[in-house]
Amino acid sequence: xxxxxxxxxxxxxxxxxxxxxxxxxxxxxxxxxxxxxxxxxxxxxxxxxxxxxxxxxxxxxxxxxxxxxxxxxxxxxxxxxxxxxxxxxxxxxxxxxxxxxxxxxxxxxxxxxxxxxxxxxxxxxxxxxxxxxxxxxxxxxxxxxxxxxxxxxxxxxxxxxxxxxxxxxxxxxxxxxxxxxxxxxxxxxxxxxxxxxxxxxxxxxxxxxxxxxxxxxxxxxxxxxxxxxxxxxxxxxxxxxxxxxxxxxxxxxxxxxxxxxxxxxxxxxxxxxxxxxxxxxxxxxxxxxxxxxxxxxxxxxxxxxxxxxxxxxxxxxxxxxxxxxxxxxxxxxxxxxxxxxxxxxxxxxxxxxxxxxxxxxxxxxxxxxxxxxxxxxxxxxxxxxxxxxxxxxxxxxxxxxxxxxxxxxxxxxxxxxxxxxxxxxxxxxxxxxxxxxxxxxx
Length: 442
Known about the structure:
CATH class of the largest domain: Alpha Beta
Number of strands: 11
CATH topology of the largest domain: D-Maltodextrin-Binding Protein, domain 2
Strand content: 5-15%
Structural class: alpha/beta
Radius of gyration: 22 Å
Shape: globular
Number of domains: 2
Distance between the termini: 20 Å
């Protein structure tokens, strides 16, 4: 899920729409037809394109600056990047009220609802879906397909399978990056015994979205134990939420959370610790914790003077029974088809604009555009994450955040909530927790 569900875990030359091409007669007719269709949905030129999103304020400020410099400086319209701390509520109000141009949806599972609320398909807007699949990967584009048409383009992506650590202290202590999950458990015990502090810093509080970081743990483990095929079956409810494969993942998650002295403050306190504050003790001298599992965007919450590679670094969440990579991101969904919204989308997904967003650590936005090179990013942390993501998509070992694909009643409802019940009631509650989530599936 996104940064606040987030929580935010990454590339195409500018795509030119057939409906907005050269001024020959045929393409002019296409433009007229597209314009006629747009007018029915409120597609008149308003001079402004609003982009509702769930970014944190610092991230939104960076993105707004990139848009102002590279898109609207020579355009005849303005763009407003509207960051909302109550995105889900504002999205419903704005889409139903007809005042929404574009939304960056962090949950593919909500795209079908967006169609019912007036979202415009990419096909109707004149996009070449084959070209988009080549640019952004066929799997990613499949996540926003509803009844044979596509309703979103990846605007950014976050690598989630990351474990952060205090690099200089880690090296000085002589610790080694774990190659397997068993190695990770052994490292946790070594840190606890040698340093006298809990190895893991964990926080699951996120206001109305409390619990989403815990679902990420579950998803990472499901990929590494059950594999991509079973993971997909879990997402689509072809297997129930209380399937033995899911319970196995939950119990392995519990190995860390309920391990003796593993988690700073204890598992039962994690629902009250803000996810953005959780890694803070890792930067104390000496560290108050040494390991933190979170996505690419979390370094935006690190101390301002913390340096990548010295004060912190990361390693991929290690394999268990097999490899896997978990990621999330946002999709641009359009509600007003007009020349300026199409022009904005074309430029926003371009290599130049996508690259510029990765150059500032305050945004930490990784592009899903395969043409965006790793040297676009602000540091090696983001560059390496982009390469891991690209490889996982190429090899089909990566999967999008499961809860973001599930029906909202589960993915952003019972799954979030019951993971917090699990943390507070302990390992013996796992069966009851999974049964409760299963009972809420629509």
